[in-house]
């Protein structure tokens, strides 16, 4: 069974930005270096617990908004502005996870998975959409049928909150408006039955 959880469309985490999300009940920050490399970390600063998704990207480092600690791509703290010449202990490190992009979607795995997420490499991003319904209800609605060319990756973020990350097969890219209407109708039907 794949451990990869979809968390966002790739275009929604552009270079130099952060995104807070939930993966298997854990708070995760997904962030992209200014050079484009993507990371998924625990969304908690090892100093005083500030959410790193509220932080800032500078080059290939993520900074914490509270006291400005800067973490390198491996999650290790490299700068403490209040002690610029001080020794940085090994505990000043953020927990890191696995992150990959496939089919215009960002996936996160909390465990190593050599297979990587499976997706159509030519897919076009459509939209992400939050549904206030349990994931089982949403999956049932999807199983009832989707229009040709519409692919939805399902992310459970809470007991009654599910996010769809929708993409289109390239040959259906001209049907984005119709597909968006379908998704909004799916949301209305699903939430009404939740
Ligand atoms: S809480 Fe992050 S640097 Fe202090």
Structure description:
This protein is mainly beta. The chain folds into two domains: 5-109, Rieske [2Fe-2S] iron-sulphur domain (Rieske Iron-sulfur Protein), CATH 2.102.10.10; 124-193, Alpha-Beta Plaits (2-Layer Sandwich), CATH 3.30.70. The protein has helices spanning 135-143, 176-193; strands spanning 5-9, 18-23, 26-32, 38-42, 56-58, 61-63, 70-71, 77-79, 98-102, 105-109, 124-131, 150-158, 161-168. The strands form four sheets. The chain has a four-stranded antiparallel β-sheet, with no helix packed on it. Strands 1-10-9 form a three-stranded antiparallel β-sheet, with no helix packed on it. Strands 2-3-4 form a three-stranded antiparallel β-sheet, with no helix packed on it. Helix 1 crosses helix 2. The structure holds FE2/S2 (inorganic) cluster. FE2/S2 (inorganic) cluster (FES) is lined by residues 45, 47-48, 50, 64, 66-69.
Oligomeric grouping of the chains? single chain
H/E element string?
A: EEEEEEEEEEEHEEH
Determine the strand fraction and express it as a percent band.
35-45%
Uncertain ranges: none
CATH class of the largest domain: Mainly Beta
Bound molecules: FE2/S2 (inorganic) cluster
Gyration radius over CA: 18 Å
The overall average pLDDT, rounded, is 95
Structural class: mainly beta
Q: How would you characterize the largest beta sheet?
A: 4 strands, antiparallel
- What CATH architecture of the largest domain do you see? 3-layer Sandwich
Q: Please report the total strand number as a whole number.
A: 13
| General shape | elongated
Count up the helices.
2
| Helix share bin | 10-25%
Order the strands across the largest sheet as they lie in space. Answer: 5-6-7-8
CATH homology-level superfamily of the largest domain: Rieske [2Fe-2S] iron-sulphur domain
In angstroms, what separates the terminal alpha carbons? 27 Å
CATH fold-level topology of the largest domain: Rieske Iron-sulfur Protein
The number of domains: 2
């Amino acid at each position: 069974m794949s451990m990869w959880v979809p968390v966002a469309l790739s275009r929604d985490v552009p270079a130099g930005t952060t995104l807070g999300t939930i993966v298997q009940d854990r708070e995760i920050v997904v962030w992209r270096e200014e050079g484009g490399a993507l990371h998924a970390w625990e969304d908690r600063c090892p100093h005083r617990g500030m959410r790193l998704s509220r932080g800032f990207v500078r080059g290939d480092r993520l900074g914490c908004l509270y006291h400005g600690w800067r973490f390198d791509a491996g999650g290790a703290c490299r700068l403490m502005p209040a002690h610029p010449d001080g020794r940085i202990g090994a505990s000043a490190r953020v927990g890191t996870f696995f992150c990959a992009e496939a089919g215009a979607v960002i996936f996160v795995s909390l465990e190593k998975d050599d297979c990587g997420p499976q997706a159509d490499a030519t897919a076009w991003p459509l939209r992400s959409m939050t549904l206030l319904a349990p994931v089982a209800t949403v999956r049932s609605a999807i199983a009832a049928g989707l229009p040709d060319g519409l692919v939805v990756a399902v992310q459970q973020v809470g007991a009654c909150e599910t996010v769809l990350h929708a993409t289109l097969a390239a040959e259906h890219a001209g049907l984005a408006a119709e597909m968006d209407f379908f998704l909004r109708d799916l949301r209305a039907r699903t939430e009404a039955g939740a």
